[in-house]
Amino acid sequence: MIINGIFYDVIAFLIVISIIVLIHEFGHFIVAKKLGVKVEKFSLGFGPKIFGKKVGETEYVVSALPLGGYVKLLGEDPSEELPPGDEKRSYSKLPPYKKFLIIFCGPFFNFVLAAIIFTIIFTMGRPVLKPVIGGVIKGHPAAKAGLKKGDIITEINGIKIKSWQSLSKYIQKYGKTTITLAIKVPKGLHGHSEGMRERSGHEGKKSYFIKLKPVAVAGLNVFGQKTKRYIIGIYPSQNAVYYKYSNIFNSFYSSLKEIWFIIYITVISLFYLIAGKLPASDLGGPIMIAQLSGRAASMGISDFFYFIAFISVNIGLINLFPIPALDGGHLLFSIIEMIKRKPLSVKFQETAAKVGFALLILLLLFVSYNDIIRTIKT
Fold first, then answer.
1. Active site residue: 25, 76, 155, 258, which one?
2. Does the active-site annotation cover 350?
3. How are strands ordered across the β-sheet holding 179-184?
4. What is the pTM of this model?
5. What is the per-residue pLDDT across 258-301, written as a single tens digit (0 to 9) for each?
6. Last residue of some domain: 212, 244, 276?
7. Whether residue 335 sits in one domain with residue 275
8. Enclosing domain of residue 280
């Protein structure tokens, strides 16, 4: 069973990485082609070639190590000797703004991929939990106020509630004070409430109102940090679900908001890591991504593609960091070239690339170590 689970995770991981890398490198490839640069090789993966085929002037290759990919452009190495007559098609001879466009469109296509996936998912409909109580915790405000399983919360402080997410949001917002809930009791639910009228008098009718004060409990935020949240002691009914559909324009707008949220969470998390507010052991690498890929695939096609979009945004964002050996490092070199009106020295670029590559290898080893320790513990 364990072997089957690992195999399933690996296959899911390869699908995720292959799609994301293919789109990323295609961004570099198509813009380079449009700008007249000769593309010598398009590789999915690194290392020894497994198989490949040359079409026109470009060799398309699948390589042994599936943890990335690359596009080889003529003149990408500043010290490379150019064949006679090909100088005009060399990357190194391009004006810096064209270099910038070629490099930028790799990460940009990752964001485009995410926007397309999110738009399709949102257009097809998203499952939303209704504000229907699935259970009440004894001793908490909801139980003391007489709320029961099956009750529907329709308003909080006069605000209409259509989803469990909205209910949670407004409980957090107004949690410091006494809140007023509008409750609808479906037919067939009975019971008595402390300090309320008999519930049977409200069955199937329009909402009636109760007041209660949430309690503060310790919790964790999305960054894993301790925080305070407000609860009333209820949990949702997993069977009370409706699908929220949007037209393609609203779905596209929602997709942009989703991308922005992922970027925000990622940037803040990195800031907290650097500041020491989050432990470095929380960083995950290929093994963690593989495990999450398998888990997302097991949850259904929609969740799997959501995960692909999520990872695509992260890879696009990280590639924009101004680190040599990443796209962001090359973008920085292009900007400096535009300002100085001449390229940086070949020696400086080569040294910076080596340092950047070494740092990436160290980071990969560190996150892989975290993954192994995390896997052993669980």
1. 25
2. no
3. 159-160, 152-156, 179-184, 208-212
4. 0.81
5. 999 999 988 888 888 887 777 777 777 777 788 788 888 888 88
6. 244
7. yes
8. 2-125+255-377
